[in-house]
Specification:
Layout (H helix, E strand, L loop, with lengths): L3 H11 L4 E2 L5 E6 L2 E10 L2 E10 L4 E10 L5 H12 L3 E2 L5
Parallel strand pairs: 1-6
Antiparallel strand pairs: 1-2, 2-3, 3-4, 4-5
């Protein structure tokens, strides 16, 4: 079973190239056989990071599908990743 901590380690060790669409709050990347999507949004007064991981080689969707609220385990790690890559993520809408 794939755990969020394993995905965080994988992202940090691989230095992923992130993609985004215009100003949408989500960005995604492909690492090995995985498609990883991160979204940052607000729910009432707190930030939430959504993580969705699919295994594209095996055709398995949602091996991880979770909303993580500010203050919960892994939020700080994922927020740091999101914040460090979001501005420099390649806007794939410009390549259409």
């Amino acid at each position: 079973m794939t755990e969020i901590s394993n995905i965080i380690d994988l992202i940090e060790s691989k230095g992923a190239k992130w993609l985004r669409v215009n100003e949408q709050p989500c960005m995604h990347t492909f690492i090995n056989d995985l498609y990883i999507n991160l979204c940052l949004w607000k729910d009432k007064d707190s930030n939430v990071i959504s993580i969705d991981v699919d295994n594209i080689e095996n055709g398995i969707s949602d091996i991880i599908l979770k909303d993580i609220r500010e203050g919960e385990q892994y939020f700080d790690n994922l927020f740091r990743i999101y914040s460090s890559y979001k501005e420099n993520a390649t806007n794939i809408a410009l390549n259409c």
